[in-house]
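Before the break, one more example. Copy the sequence into your notebook; we will annotate it together after we see the structure.
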Amino acid sequence: MNRLERLRLLLNQAQFNGFEFRRWFVANVHSSWPGSEQALTLLAGEGRFYTLLFSHEFAHAFWRPGSQIAFAVPAMSYSRVNGQGEVKQVNRKAFTRRTVKRDVWMYHLGQMAMADDPVAYLCKFLPVNDQVWLQGDLALPMAAQA
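Here is what the structure looks like once it is written out:
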């Protein structure tokens, strides 16, 4: 899946939560509105998509406070020192998170800035059915076809 398709899915999620892409684009990127598809192509093609991804408006809408969303948290393993000073290996199973806490968007902006690939970081928080589609297991969702 290319960058434009990933950005389209991310933008769909933010717009579903109330993000006004047209207003944001005219205020931050270009004074005239070329249309949603051309605007997204412009952002993806020129590498200006970071302007969108790191904008506070986008982040606040993407991680809408208190929203009920389902996203997969992957399995992970890490070392931890227990009370006796022994190093133990902790293995966490993958699970699905369902709620988003208040002001979590500020935390995620910082995490996204430290991530190697901010787009991939954001894609982890897409609804589960979109994550499965990103992995190539399903056909294009109806929302992404429009």
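Strands lie at 68-73, 76-81, 87-92, 95-99. Confidence is low (pLDDT under 50) at residues 137-146. Try to locate both features in your own notes.
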